[in-house]
TrEMBL record:
Pfam family, one: ubiquitin
Molecular functions (GO terms): adenyl-nucleotide exchange factor activity; protein-folding chaperone binding
Ubiquitin-like domain segment(s): 49-119
Region (Disordered): 1-25
SUPFAM superfamilies per the UniProt record, alphabetical: BAG domain (SSF63491), Ubiquitin-like (SSF54236)
Residue ranges occupied by any BAG domain in the UniProt entry: 144-222
Name used for this protein in its record: BAG family molecular chaperone regulator 1
Entry keyword ATP-binding: no
Alphabetized UniProt keyword annotations: Chaperone
InterPro entries referenced in this protein's UniProt entry, alphabetically: BAG_chaperone_regulator, BAG_dom_sf, BAG_domain, Ubiquitin-like_dom, Ubiquitin-like_domsf
Biological-process GO terms, alphabetical: protein stabilization
PROSITE patterns xref list: BAG, UBIQUITIN_2
Amino acid sequence: MNKDSILRMKSSKGSSPTAASTEVAGGWEVRPGGMLVQKRNSDSNHIVPNIKVRVKHGSVYHEVVISSQASFGELKKLVAGVTGVHTQDQKLIFKEKERDSILFLDSAGVRDGSKIVLVEDEVSRERRRLESRKNAKLDKASKEIADIRFEVDTLSKKVGAIELEINGGKKVVETVFLSLIELLMTQLIKLDAIDADGDVKLQRRMQVKRVQKYIETLDMLKVRNSSLEKLQQHQQIYKGSMSKKFQKQQEMKKINGNFNHGEVVVTTKWETF
């Protein structure tokens, strides 16, 4: 079937679109089901009759009531509701020919009581199944990354608190650094195990960079914390040395204070000749 035959529309009086359709540019219209089809001319006062078509799916027949001027695409949506076969997986065969979704029923000769055969497209179904699995995998990966992002946000606040303490001259216990670094490394391992593509892969890369930055910050703070510890030790040694020196000076003053250099004390009585 050529394109002209598929897009051919039934001529009638008037040029206004049906009330249930929305006209768009280029001689096309959007049908109630959301499908874009070629615009049809009809009398605004003309009532379009409904017809019953028999759709055979396997060994089962389904009766579907639809407008005689509907498209095969709209019929597919109704058929999906009664058979459970996705519209993308449907092949509608009428008079031994597969009919395109944009073709109108009456243009193809479908009448009340006509029989249409539904054949499932195995290739399309498998493609959709793979696509569905891929989307589910990406959704799972995105959720896992969101959970890791929340955990990293919590750990980042602890890193910031440690930095404030060290900037204020307060020494931090070494085990705090080791614990935080271990938790951040755990998040890196989780991120590395996530298989992602596209935007989700970009999200994972961003979180990896965040975690690496916080680990580098902790390494830097460890060095500063160690320097701060050595400085405090030197200060304590200096204070201890000065304290001992001061005590020694005080003792010397005390000893020297027992002697009065301004007076001569005679302790021996000499006989006067």
